[in-house]
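Section 3.1: Structural characterization of target chains.
Under the original work plan, the team committed to producing a structural model for every single-chain target entering the pipeline before any wet-lab resources were allocated. The record below documents one such target. The sequence was received from the expression subgroup and is listed exactly as submitted; it comprises 556 residues.
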Amino acid sequence: MNTQAEQDARAHAARARGFLEQLAEAKKDPLACLAANRETGAACDAIEQALAHMDARKDCSDFKAHLLLRACRLPQTSARLPQALRERIRAALLGLPYRDFAPDNRMLHRSENHRLCFLTAELLAAETWPEAAFTSTGRPAREHFHQARYDLADWTRWVGTYGSSEWDSSTYYAIDLLSLLDVFDFSADDRSRRRARWVLDKLVLDIALKSFRGVYGGSQGRCYANALLNPRQCGTANVLPLLFGLSEPSLDGGGMLSSFLATSGYRPPEAIGRIAASAEAMLHRQRHRGDDRYYPPPDVPHVKNLNLYSDVNTVTYRESTGMLASAQDLRPGESDRQVQVWQATLSPEIAVFANHPGDEGVNSAAGASFWTGCARLPRVFQHEATLLALYAAPAGAGLPYTHAHFPALAFDETALGSHWAAGRLGDAYVGLRCSSNLTAAPEGPWAGRELRAEPGAAAWACELSCRARAGNFEKFAAELHEAPLAFDARALRAEYRSPQAGALVLNWTGAALRDGRAVELAHFPHHDGPFAKGEFGSGVVDLNCGGAQARLALND
């Protein structure tokens, strides 16, 4: 009789084969084409392009290095590479400057994901060609291996124990995952493989906790507009579909990680899949602390605002009809070009959030853009399914107003007032309340998606609800319309009487209040919720969901 584990393994293998075939047929991924023995000429051309990228020392060459490593190390792909191309790959990987002190370096090494990507590529290149010398340094492979092994132990110790400076990032978790998958699948060093497995499990757990019906919707340390507005296109879009079969994988999302997952032997604990699939109401608190040792000082322009110098305390509330997530009290008043502070998610097409835009560009290299980041971060307080945020929006900082992404056409029904908006999708409701008058964009690229507040400071409230709790949609909208929101723009103080959370008070500094009682917005455990618990700094997380249990802990 087949066990459940055996059935799950067969189902996973079938999903992986089927998706590789789809990727190959769509010519979306060179690894998939090689693995499926389709369009191998086009796949080799794509690898040549990756080699040219590396030869030019362009940024993200470390990402390309992992594509080349997997192509070389997977038996089903390596066998289809011409000998001359394999030699080109060998030369490129032995010649890549893995350390940023290299004289010809023009690549960004000093961010959390790049640091991991370079050192894991270095470790695997040294293991793949152990008798070679690295032409980038003249040093033998064994020296590179031992240095990379030490650095990997250091990186995994920090992130596995304290969390990520790029917390819950749908873009950069994808890079971390593909780097760690290569170590897990190909390294002969047991210690490195165990450490990779430990952090793989923890990152996949984060994704499972911050996803709603397979859609990633948590607050994020680093994000880009395309992933916020089109979550099926984000880098982690196919993690839950491929690992757990929770939804159909996307051909338009997932990037390189999709084929890495589909060709990997990694399987997460069953408990994480149960957490991702659970429809039980969940309130989860979590704390991350970034490691700043690998970064230049915070005044270096290209690494500003990467959450390196503060703890991040996040709250995620998820129920069967929607999810609301936020980062609490995260450096209010500072600028950050890539943080997603809070978001309500009802579906892949409905992400509702507000920000203080830096400029009118969709993505900006210099600072906060129209939807991504904040010219000045708000102060946020979330109680279960209700959120209150204060935006200072001072003159001269970014654009002079705050606004919300509210995709009206994606809802089944909407209602709009001068200071509020409500939307329904099936039995799920989301509502926004603002201290300023709101205007819907009448034309242009954001017509039907943007609600703009009057210039100046503002308070925003968000309510996530459903028919079972709030009654019919008309009642929900009426209560939102009547909910008092008092805001003192000079003192930056808001008082909001939520239909479901009671009386909330938030000042720019000091304690947040709910029904007159102070609420702690910081110093959370590493994990604290019904499915996952772990003390901050312990490196241990205990999971329990649907009868499945697991402990995530490093075992050196």
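DSSP finds 16 helices and 25 strands in the chain.
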